[in-house]
Design brief:
The chain is built from 19 helices and seven strands. By secondary structure, it is α/β, with parallel strands linked by helices. It has three domains: 115 residues, 2-Layer Sandwich (Nucleotidyltransferase, domain 5); 137 residues; 138 residues, no CATH class. The strands form two sheets. It has a five-stranded mixed sheet. Strands 6-7 form a two-stranded antiparallel sheet. The longest helix has 35 residues. It is globular. The C terminus is likely disordered. Pfam families: DEDD_Tnp_IS110, Transposase_20. One of its GO terms (molecular function) is DNA binding. This is Transposase IS116/IS110/IS902 family protein.
Amino acid sequence: MIYCGIDWAERTHDVALVDHCGQLLAKRHITDDAAGYKILMDLLAEYGDTEENPIPVAIETSRGLLLAVLRTGKWQVFAINPMAAARYRDRYSVSRKKSDPGDALVLANILRTDMHAHRPLPQDSDLARAVAVLARAQQDATWNRQQISNQLRSLLREYYPSALAAFESWRNGLCRPEAHELLKAAPTPTRAARLTRTQLQAALKRAGRQRGIAAESDRLQEVFRADWAHQPLLVEEALGKQRLAILVQLQAACTAADDLAKAVEEAFPEYPDAEIILSFPGLGVQIGARVLAEIGDDRTRFADARGLKAYAGASPITRASGKKSNITRRWVKNDRLNHAGYLWAFSAITASPGAKAHYRKRRDDHGDWHAAAQRNLFNRMLGQLYHCLRHNHTYDETVAFPDGSVAARAAVA
């Protein structure tokens, strides 16, 4: 057996090949371009790489053009966590010396000794990977929008509390177009107090509002002209300019999140198993796409539902030593899937009578806190999703929560 290790870098990569005894057979320094990829392919072919017997490859990243090239063939690619690679490095050098060729050799030896302990990259379809790109980008854009919104809220608390009071009754207040138009028309509370009803109505119309404009403008004028504390005029003007800069970032983040959400809505329904995923209560297009992005469609990726639950951080973990034993939640997990699961379980509580009964049972009978009960619900529904995807079944409430469905029907009766 021949094993390949690649120390990935931004512009160049170091490649090392070892045999089953750990003997270094070859090493190369290749560039991150088509010419470098061809050198890598020729090197692997020179040492017996074929489609029937491909050489396994270890690398410290799971994305990029080099990975795309390796995915086109039959290679088993193992994405080794950099922290795990650093621990393996101590086996070969107690002096803690480090070099890129040495790291490539360490990665190759990881496969030689412990390939069974590492999971190869899943062989997901191109459509599933495309949905994953869009879903993760939309998730990042949503987080970025919330972060900038929090920055704007914190700044408004320093000098412009009337704006927070005016937008408080609106859903997603600071992210709404009406809030953006009003903040552009009045960067400071002093200017906001001078806005007339006509100016307020014009700002609301520019934002796209069509109903209740007159009543809303009267409410806004009353809020802006109420008695509020003020910063000194020069400080207020300076804060207004800072707020305009943050507002530009927030508008761009809102646009990006909305555009990516539309892209997900167009791409996800084309996926063959979208009907199965969307049949689960609490899973809409956006959350369903995020779940698909993290679990993929390679049915051999997880040996059983327990592996998927551990990967998502839904199942508990036991730490035992001697007579001491502690059961707690997992800290090492797929954070994106775990976050999607939190939203999924939260929505399922109101969308499924069985899920709600299961949640109440965890709270009342087992004494779980809200987050722990939701995590347990996510753990159970993730196992159900695994079963449905493996057997090509849609969600069935009576099968998923037989006890909860009976209790729900009895409560209604």
